[in-house]
Amino acid sequence: MDQDRLRIWLAGTLGCPDLAIADTRPLGGGSIQENRLVSCRVGDDVRAFVLRMDAAATIASSRTRAEEFRILEAVWNAGVRVPEPVAFCEDPEVIGAPFAVMGLVEGVGLGPRIAKDPSLGGDREQLAETLGRELAKIHAALDPRALPAGLAFLGAPEPDPTRAEIARLRASLDGIGVRRPAIEWGLRWGEVRAPACPAPTLVHRDFRTGNYMVDGSGLTAVLDWEFAGWGDPDQDLGWFCAACWRFGRPEREAGGVGSRAAFYRGYTSESGRTVDPARVAYWEVMAHVRWAVIALEQGARHVSGREFSLELALTGRMVPDLERAILRATAPAAWS
Amino acid sequence: MQDEPSGAALLDAARRALTEEVVPGLTGRPRYVALMVANALGIAARDITQAEFWRATAGRVVAGEPVETLIEAIRAGERDADPELHAALTAAAEVAAQIWKPAAPGT
Questions:
Q1: Rounded to a whole number, what is the distance in Å from the CA of A331 to chain B's nearest CA?
Q2: Which residue in chain A is spatially nearest to B84 when comparing CA positions?
Q3: Closest CA to A316 of A296, A302, A288
Q4: Which of A44, A136, A287, B84 would be a feasible disulfide site paired with A271, CB 3.0-4.6 Å?
Q5: Hey, what's the torsion of the CAs at A45, A46, A50, A56, to 10 degrees?
Q6: What is the ipTM of this complex?
Q7: Which residues of B fall within a CB distance of 8 Å from A188?
Q8: By CA distance, what is A313's nearest residue in B?
Q9: B13 min Cα distance to partner chain A (Å)
Q10: Gap between the Cα atoms of A153 and A63, Å rounded
Q11: Which residues of A touch B43 (CB under 8 A)?
Q12: CA A192 from centroid of its chain's CA atoms
């Protein structure tokens, strides 16, 4: 990375001509995007930013960094606990690719660590409740009928977002040339059982443990907005509670951190909407289906030879475990 | 006759040596990578030992048809709630999931 070009761009954008870069280093996490910590000195102040850019290979269903940044601005303005959106650089010449600049948020994001380490996240029931509240704020952040110009790329919500999601997942499988009858079975079940979605909202689409950060006292930020768009709000509730995202704590049904009741309580108190457990249960099955498709896409990045990664290779191999859960939930009696 | 130990047994010995002798001395990223390597060796070993069983159960799913034909039929709704297909898919997924991560004894 050309540090001098980055320094000039940051100094110009922030209006701080004396800005100096003290340190840059890669931050862990993010198999799709690459994050870099940049510490700057501005006069006597030290400011730390996170630069977010595309990793070597991206997966087709994730948004561009520019779109993700606009969504981050919208939810920041709606009061959702997210990193501060600072600036976006469209010019690929500055560091080699367009990138977003965000304020650094302290905390731990690693899912398994959050699930296992009780010193993190403060009171766990309170954490689950807070996450429910934040999710409700996300769902209320934008009105699809009154979209700011900068978010025009979101378009109008699809008339049937659930079946549209299923069509996208099938297209993803066809795109990587993967043929998995068990996942097809799950997708078809999802099509047959699809609940109506009368009021699509902004959905995060990857709202789960591992995609938010906590410190010793609680939630510090909701991260990873690369899949956000219009959809069924219950999709986010189901994704968060799905058994595949509990990191070895299956008894804590809300993301491996707290009770489902606390999570729903937070959601309802913020949104005024009562959670329908049957709809969330549908989306928990679909969470396994979607995670299986994403895992296959991640595995394909390694298998295709585009990117060497043992982590991605192993992710591709975990799919049968998800298929088993899908099949258990979609036995013939569960089709009607 | 195959040389002893077999490929699968060698992979398993490599996995044990790694987890018992190398991993305890590591921390941070190298420890994480070594554990992933051990995991991959275990999967590869089980892949070899269960290959025949896997082929048989996966074969039951497609029942002599090309897999593309089965997928078309599922998407077209021709196999909705089909109990035989569900049983065959479940058997195949159970075997493959055991290759990924064997259940602890007694569970």
A1: 7
A2: A332
A3: A296
A4: A136
A5: 120
A6: 0.90
A7: 74-75, 77, 79-80
A8: B40
A9: 20
A10: 10
A11: 314, 317
A12: 27
Contacts of A333 (CB under 8 A, 6+ apart): B81
Query: Could you tell me which residue, B56 or A84, shows the higher pLDDT?
Result: A84
Is the torsion defined by CA of A252, A257, A262, A266 positive or negative? negative
8 Å CB contact of B71 and A317: no
pLDDT one-digit tens code per residue, A1-14: 678 999 999 999 99
| Among candidates A314, A321, A327 on the partner chain, residue whose Cβ is nearest the Cβ of B86 | A327
Give the integer Cα–Cα distance in Å for B92 and B53.
9
Flag whether pLDDT at A58 surpasses 80.
Answer: no
Residue B75, CA atoms < 13 Å, CB-side half-sphere: 17
pLDDT in tens, B59-88: 888 888 899 999 999 999 999 999 999 999
Contact A33, A47 (CB under 8 A): no
In the block, residue with structure tokens 């009770």: A259
Where are the strands (E) in chain A, listed by range? Answer: 20-27, 33-42, 45-54, 85-89, 99-103, 201-203, 212-214, 219-222, 229-231
> What is the model's pTM?
0.91
* DSSP code per residue over A84-129: PEEEEE--TTTTSS-EEEEE---SB--HHHHHH-TTSSSSHHHHHH
Inter-chain touch A182–B74, beta carbons under 8 Å: no
Unique residue bearing structure tokens 């898919």: B89
Q: Residue B106 is encoded by which pair of tokens?
A: 């007694």
Q: Do A323 and B89 touch (CB under 8 A)?
A: yes
| Contacting residues of A for B71, CB less than 8 Å apart | 179, 181, 184
Residue A91, phi then psi, degrees to nearest 5: -75, 110
Of B36, B80, B86, the CB nearest to A310: B36
Q: Which residues of A touch B100 (CB under 8 A)?
A: 317-318, 320-321
Pick the residue of B62, B100, B101, B107 with the most A CBs within 10 A to test the interface with A by mutation: B100
pLDDT tens for each residue of A95-137: 888 899 999 999 999 999 999 999 999 999 999 999 999 999 9
Report CB contact under 8 Å: A185, B74: yes
Distance from CA of A189 to the nearest CA of B (A): 8
> Three-state SS across chain B?
CCCCCCHHHHHHHHHHHHHHHHHHHCCHHHHHHHHHHHHHHHHHHHHHHCHHHHHHHHHHHHCCCCHHHHHHHHHCCCCCCCHHHHHHHHHHHHHHHHHHCCCCCCC
Phi, psi of A81 (to 5 degrees): -75, 95
